[in-house]
Amino acid sequence: MEELNHIPPENASSEQPTSFAPLAIRLLKGVVYEEEARYWNDLLKAHELPLRRYFAQIGLDLIVNRQEGFAYLRQVQQEETEANPLPRLMTRRSLTIDQTILCVLLREHLEDYTVNESASREPILTLRDLRDMVELFFRERNTQQRFLKDVKKTVEDVKKQGFLEELNSGSTSQNDDEIRYRVKRILKAFIGPDELQQLAQQIANL
To answer: What is the pLDDT of residues 122-179, one digit of tens each?
Structure first.
């Protein structure tokens, strides 16, 4: 019997998933920043459109912010009335009051830092800086020890959310107050200017 050659459909993409598989896996792990030159250049120069189509098949949007230099995946919002809604792949970010306060203050600081056109896109703050930043809003804590404990826990929680990056992790000789954190600009994607104003007003009324 004569062997039949497989003819792909006319609308099939000419790019095989294996060609962008490393970048797709990296995006599934988290935010890609332009500082990761290998991934960023591959995304912008070759794979953005194929990746958009690829992720759309599983209900994910590829968000690329060229101006700020980052890209990430966001799950497509579905109506609650849909007959067969997709299970959630991306975890919803649910913040406590303390985490919200810190994120809003970091977002404001990030905005001021950007406006001042610093050489770096992301400010670096010490734990002491962060403590001073939230002290006015955490003033109702029973004791100084409770205040310090709550600040450290909130900073750690916000770091786990991907909005802070600890720069000297693992150092045992350093005073906690001098631990440095980079404020990640992906925070701008989750708290826009309008939401920032609304949240800032709510915090001011606490």
So the answer is: 999 999 999 999 888 876 666 778 888 889 999 999 999 999 999 976 666 568 888 9
Residue-by-residue DSSP string for 124-135: EEEHHHHHHHHT
What are the structural domains, with CATH classification, of the chain?
17-75 (1.10.10), 97-204 (1.10.10)
Which positions ≥6 away from 159 have C-beta within 8 Å?
165, 166, 181
List of long-range contacts for 127-131, beta carbons under 8 Å, 24+ apart:
127/151, 127/152, 127/155, 127/176, 127/177, 127/178, 127/179, 127/181, 128/177, 128/178, 130/102, 130/155, 130/181, 131/177
> How long, in residues, is the chain?
206
Among 69, 173, 169, 184, smallest CA distance to 124 is for: 184
Q: What is the pTM of this model?
A: 0.76
